[in-house]
Design brief:
The chain has 62 residues and is mostly helical. The protein is 74% helix and 0% strand. The protein has helices spanning 2-6, 13-30, 35-38, 40-58. Helix 2 runs antiparallel to helix 4 (40-58).
Length: 62
């Protein structure tokens, strides 16, 4: 969330790439058996926070 606030509206490519990496990582976790240990709602909440940060970084730039 801090990265989203720091780079809000900037379309910073490094911030975008970092957030997309973690988005894909959480998405992959949802389809694996590891999600049972952490709990599906926990992983989904993390994914939602990352996507919100990604939306803040890219806001107004498309």
């Amino acid at each position: 969330m801090a990265m989203g606030l720091r780079f809000a509206g900037s379309a910073n490519q490094e911030a975008f790439n970092c957030l997309m990496f973690y988005t894909k990582h959480c998405k992959d976790l949802l389809s694996s058996s590891a999600v049972e240990q952490a709990g599906k709602p926990t992983v989904e909440t993390c994914l939602n926070s990352i996507l919100l940060s990604l939306a803040m970084v890219m806001a107004g730039n498309w």
